[in-house]
Amino acid sequence: MNQPESFTEIFLQPGDFYFGDVNTRLRTLLGSCVSITMWHPTRLIGGMCHYLLPSRESASVTPLDGRYAKEAMQMFAHEIRAAKTHPSEYCVKLFGAGNMFPGIKKNNPCDSNGCENNINACKSVPCKNMAIARSLVASHGFVVAAEDLGGNSHRQIVFDIYNGYVWVRKPGPIHA
């Protein structure tokens, strides 16, 4: 499908969530936060979240808040039900969870035991965000088509709903 002649470009701030149609391009900038993109290849609908933390400490969850992974996933589930579609029909991609302070020992997201897949083994926000993203998409019946998680830098993300493409831009090496 060719790019629409005019489309709306939306920049997601931390905590934002958007679900829309073919005429939308979504952008965001991630550090330790995570974005999940979801795209329906036949209906040409989809969305993106930009969450900061895995979940809230308090149990009161009204209204849903996109700053938290668990609630952002509930927001996706609501939109998917409203569109009369099923999670297995979506192409899902995960981005972010960069360790923005690699020199600080307690911020090292993981050690060699693969803790990025186990939120209980994580000691840092990036590691917890990575682990919860993988856990939530699997538990809701999504299959991850691609991911760019971890590392020690920020990322710029651009997601075109008309074709499902997601572009990731990271800073190049710093030369002194």
Keywords:
single chain; 60s Ribosomal Protein L30, Chain: A; 5-stranded mixed sheet; 4-stranded mixed sheet
Q: What is the approximate shape? A: globular
- Radius of gyration equals 16 Å
User: Mind describing the biggest β-sheet?
Assistant: 5 strands, mixed
Number of helices: 2
Say what the CATH topology is.
Answer: 60s Ribosomal Protein L30, Chain: A
- SSE arrangement, N to C: EEEEEHEHEEE
Descriptive report:
The protein has a single domain, classed as 60s Ribosomal Protein L30, Chain: A. The chain has 2 helices and 9 strands, in the order E-E-E-E-E-H-E-H-E-E-E. It has helices spanning 69-82, 125-139, and strands spanning 8-12, 17-20, 24-30, 34-40, 45-51, 91-96, 144-149, 155-160, 166-169. Strand 8 and strand 9 form a beta hairpin. The protein is globular. It starts with 7 loop residues before the first strand and ends in a 7-residue tail after the last strand. The mean pLDDT is 88.
Write the layout of secondary structure elements.
Blueprint: E1 8-12, E2 17-20, E3 24-30, E4 34-40, E5 45-51, H1 69-82, E6 91-96, H2 125-139, E7 144-149, E8 155-160, E9 166-169
Parallel strand pairs: 1-3, 6-7
Antiparallel strand pairs: 2-5, 3-8, 4-5, 4-6, 8-9
Question: Could you write a compact summary of the structure shown?
Answer:
A hairpin with a 4-residue loop joins strand 4 (34-40) and strand 5 (45-51). It is built from two helices and nine strands. The protein has 176 residues and is α+β, with helices and mostly antiparallel strands.
